[in-house]
Amino acid sequence: xxxxxxxxxxxxxxxxxxxxxxxxxxxxxxxxxxxxxxxxxxxxxxxxxxxxxxxxxxxxxxxxxxxxxxxxxxxxxxxxxxxxxxxxxxxxxxxxxxxxxxxxxxxxxxxxxxxxxxxxxxxxxxxxxxxxxxxxx
Length: 137
Ligand code: THU
Prior knowledge:
The protein is an alpha+beta fold. Helices cover 28% and strands 22% of the residues.
């Protein structure tokens, strides 16, 4: 797994912080911003978008991944998630699975107070079910 520079971390946290302000979270009041770094060095962002039919709400991380895929990215190399939680909140189980589809890469958990935790997809979801799981024995 490649190490992220402080500059790359700053760039992702800043993008996730900005997109968090656009979150649509009228039901939970919990705004989340996510920014993924694609293999080609581009940053793609997403925020949570809630729905009156609560189960249809979509998390910030999955929106950021969808934006990266729609932009034609070939792979992901990092993600930052920004909330106003202390300690910084971690991706939900569904988002961990979606991130794991794209490999093991750094995950930065950050909050508005400036706290940052650098972890990884592999740490958040060990022994994940991935595309490699389809390999025959
Ligand atoms: N949420 C995210 O955007 N990402 C996560 O990983 C966890 C939860 C959103 C979903 C919902 O809009 C709000 O946070 C409260 O659960």
